[in-house]
């Protein structure tokens, strides 16, 4: 029914992933490089999304518009049925991306000089958003044991004592962890103890493999729910990054007002008319596509992990969620510079270097597997060639 095997030519479409990575990897020519870096998919979006956008395009006026009730309803129903998360319409604030949402929340609810805690290795904007806003960044690295990561809650509490906010990544990019209930409850307990705001980036919430289950931290926060702000989007799940659609869930009316007034003062707004339609269609009708896509990527992950394990010094564990594989090459003895050089010049393969997510990512690479199996197999061949 869905053809995820279809290899779609994305070159020369102004794609960041396929057309514009030369300067990032310091390459003058990129035509023969296979890019598996930035987190978007090489799959066609669900047909329901294309149909919804096309239908809206048939009306020739694109004046100022509102977010329709059906889009609110689609999100509210999705959160209730997929995540047992009850959300009211007025608790939803729309932004054109999760990054703008994170920046909006930090700017509105913390002050210059305030300390913000993050848990590296972690999605790199968690570093640059607070620092660009002149906040002080406090890191509390996750502890890695045989490829699994967990929190060091003693160290975490020591940082929270000094902090105003914590940015959680759940599911975690790049490690792929889906944090369990006990971990989430402990995060809430400690943040409550030290009066720390919890900003939870849950953009990967709907990209979780069985038997894992995503739990929004707000749903275990109990009486502390007002200290949680959750950022979500349809864009990662349904491959809509450049449609630009995201939303925050803010239960506390006072915080909503601060966030909205900061946004108004700084010219930030909601989402455009096509994003409204795409978001509604994805959440209303995209479930079958999502389940098939997850099955497909799960299989691709298994194949790639098996193949990688045949390379000396290289291992990877299947993530609980996300389509990102976190590859451990520490046992090869290669430095990051050496392996990146080999991958780019010999293998002609562009992966993300682990230190992009903090020094704790040294010895790891991130590979984006939201692609046809044939592309992943080609990547493996190139990886092997680079390390031969
Ligand atoms: C954890 C996380 N947050 C946010 C984003 C980007 O969100 P947006 O494109 O909506 O700004 C990504 C993209 O990879 C991500 O992995």
From TrEMBL:
Aminotransferase class I/classII large domain boundaries: 40-383
Pfam families: Aminotran_1_2
Enzyme Commission number(s) from the entry: 4.4.1.13
Cited InterPro entries: Aminotransferase_I/II_large (IPR004839), C-S_lyase_PatB-like (IPR027619), Class-II_PLP-Dep_Aminotrans (IPR051798), PyrdxlP-dep_Trfase (IPR015424), PyrdxlP-dep_Trfase_major (IPR015421), PyrdxlP-dep_Trfase_small (IPR015422)
Keyword Magnesium belongs to the record: no
Keywords assigned: Lyase, Pyridoxal phosphate
Domain of life: Bacteria
This protein's record includes keyword Lyase: yes
One example GO MF annotation: pyridoxal phosphate binding
Broadest EC class assigned to this enzyme: lyase
Cofactor: pyridoxal 5'-phosphate
Cited NCBIfam families: C_S_lyase_PatB
Similarity comment: family membership: Belongs to the class-II pyridoxal-phosphate-dependent aminotransferase family. MalY/PatB cystathionine beta-lyase subfamily.
Name under which the protein is recorded: cysteine-S-conjugate beta-lyase
């Amino acid at each position: 029914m869905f053809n995820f095997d279809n290899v779609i030519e994305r070159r020369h479409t102004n794609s960041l992933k396929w057309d514009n990575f030369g300067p990032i990897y310091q390459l003058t020519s990129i035509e023969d490089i296979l890019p598996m870096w930035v987190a978007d998919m090489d799959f066609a979006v669900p047909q329901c999304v294309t149909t919804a956008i096309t239908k809206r395009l048939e009306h020739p006026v694109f004046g100022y518009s509102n977010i329709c009730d059906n889009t609110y309803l689609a999100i509210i129903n999705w959160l209730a049925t997929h995540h047992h998360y009850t959300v009211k319409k007025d608790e939803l604030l729309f932004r054109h991306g999760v990054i703008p949402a994170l920046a909006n929340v930090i700017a509105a609810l913390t002050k210059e000089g305030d300390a913000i805690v993050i848990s590296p290795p972690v999605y790199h904007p968690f570093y640059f958003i607070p620092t660009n806003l002149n906040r002080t960044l406090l890191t509390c690295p996750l502890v890695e044991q045989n490829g699994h990561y967990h929190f060091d809650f003693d160290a975490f509490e020591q940082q929270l004592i000094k902090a105003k906010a914590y940015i959680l990544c759940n599911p975690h990019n790049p490690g792929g962890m889906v944090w369990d209930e006990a971990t989430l409850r402990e995060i809430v307990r400690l943040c409550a103890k030290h009066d720390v705001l919890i900003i939870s980036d849950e953009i990967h919430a709907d990209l979780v493999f069985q038997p894992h289950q995503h739990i929004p931290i707000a749903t275990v926060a109990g009486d502390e729910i007002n200290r949680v702000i959750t950022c979500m989007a349809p864009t990662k799940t349904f491959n809509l990054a450049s449609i630009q659609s995201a939303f925050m869930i803010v239960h506390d009316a006072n915080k909503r007002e601060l966030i909205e007034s900061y946004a108004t003062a700084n010219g930030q707004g909601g989402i455009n008319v096509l994003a409204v339609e795409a978001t509604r269609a994805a959440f209303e009708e995209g479930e079958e596509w999502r389940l098939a896509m997850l099955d497909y990527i799960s299989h691709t992950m298994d194949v790639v992990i098996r193949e990688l394990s045949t390379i000396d010094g290289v291992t990877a564990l299947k993530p609980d969620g996300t389509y990102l594989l976190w590859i451990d090459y520490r046992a090869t003895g290669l430095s990051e510079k050496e392996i990146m050089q080999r991958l780019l010049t010999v293998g002609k393969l562009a992966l993300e270097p682990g230190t992009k997510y903090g020094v704790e990512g040294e010895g790891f690479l991130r590979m984006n597997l939201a692609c046809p199996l044939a592309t992943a197999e080609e990547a493996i061949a190139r990886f092997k060639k680079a390390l031969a």
